[in-house]
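Hi R.,

Here's the chain you asked about this morning:
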Amino acid sequence: MHFTTRRRLVATSLAIALGATTLAACGSGSGDDDAQGDGPADLVYWAWAPGMDKVADLWNTTEGKKTGIKVTVKKQASGDDLVTKIITAAKAKKAPDLVQAEYQALPTLVSNDVLADISGDVKGVEAKFAPGVWQQTTLGTDAVYAIPQDSGPMMFYYRADLFKKYGLTVPTTWDEFAATARAVKKKDPAVSLTTFSSHDPGLFAGLSQQAGAQWWTTQGDTWKVAINDTATQKVADFWGGLVAEGAIDNQSMYTPSWNKALNTGKQIAWVSAVWAPGTLTTAAPETSGKWAMAPLPQWDTAKPATGSWGGSSTGVTNDSQHKKAAATFATWLNTDSAALAALVEEGAIYPAATAAQTGGALDRAPEYFADQKDFYAQAAEIAKTTAPAAWGPNVNVAYAAFNDAFSLAAKNKTAFGPALATMEKATVDDMKKQGFEVTGR
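And here is the predicted structure, written out as tokens:
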């Protein structure tokens, strides 16, 4: 199939005009599901989460013995490195049976005919996940390209002791957040409520999702890019305004300087995701037990919502000769209670399955938040409000453009609006260059 034509057909398939049959025809797998059956089968799973081999061993010694399906995990790098490697393998018809894929990578993998539609083998699974999380694995269609594995619902972290010291109230709206940031500066100019990190596009994407942004969608056989939409402009103007007036810091996160600010009380809050306790443990070890977690501030308190920052899924490739068996394992891995407990204990992940987000392996708060006994109970309630995310086939390009344009704006404390427009233009131009049919807003 011609490269440009395939790209156009992907947009059509995502709009259900062509459906999964066309994608499967372009893939490298042979045989049909009826021929593949459940087992026996030897499956290879590419994953990067720690301890995934131990979780697979649990399958092999229990369900695997019953079904004759054996799973071997091959540890991989994450992020763009894995995306490049799996696409290369698929072109050589040597992709593994299963792959751990970040949500934002799914459209890229689908557009390159890497992932199979497993909707026929996972009926009833959708109900086990929050709608906003499940939607990311369907790309807004009836097809299912992966099973959600872990999620990153966003929330607000703050130094409870310093909020008390400065007489601050935990903000429930973004207007209150801005007022709190200004109040902190008035009380101590050397202290900031938080920072805007221009090297973390995933954070900005999650904040935009919370505001209602849908950066990539399809209309018929055409992609629509709306990175510079009203919702995202609102988020960009909000954070750009706080940076410009000096109400918050503008340094990047995950640096020695940022760690020091957290550890010494120079930054007293952090907009992050459910995985933040692990980061704080290493970034600010001296402040353990002094932090608390609350829901993200809202744009509309009558319609509570949160965004996603991070998370991954388990996909079945078109190269697999045992798609049904692979889908069986992927379902077990991400919905079975024993498997989910193992994922939490061995992989330190926050499971996407709603039933596993409280109790069991998550019946105790993270040690860093030992005084907040309801940490995971509250996190589970927040996760239910996860807004749907809309990813496209070149998230890496959009993110790179964000890093360049927003870094300059943050450094110069200039408006973020032009940077947002630059980000959208770079994304659209790249998609057109690749052969996609695409329009702006």
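One quick note: Confidence is low (pLDDT under 50) at residues 1-37.

Cheers,
M.
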